[in-house]
Fold this sequence. Notes:
The protein is mainly alpha-helical. It is built from five helices and no strands. It has a domain of 77 residues. The longest helix is centred in the C-terminal third of the chain and has 33 residues.
Amino acid sequence: MYTSIAPILGWIVLVAILALAWLRGGAAERIGALIVLVSAACAVMIHLLAPKAVQAPLLLIDEVFVAVSFLALALRYMSVWLGAAMILQAVQFSLHAYYLIGELPRDHFYAVVNNLDSLGVLLCILIGTLLAWRKRAQLAK
Length: 141
């Protein structure tokens, strides 16, 4: 399925950060991790099962789900990491929309921006998880 080690490493990082968020994060981090996991699973299913002609609109819908979910989380939990994740998700949504509306083929630039943005969202979840973990440890003392 993959021709490079990079996607495999990406999946390992994704699973590790989401597992850490689920085990050590607070409610916001757990919900954020679940949102990213559901979105990643949907994206894989879209790439594997959907015809090429409808993949781009379906991926855009997936990005809408993530963006709206992070917006709801940011409004509920008022966390800086959620605000940053929401902004990064807006960039992701804009990237998908630009390529869809412009009927552009997904090129190297698209892949780089998409992957860096996804890593940024994961980094936000990781930071939120570490902060929640530290806060719980300080309260326990």
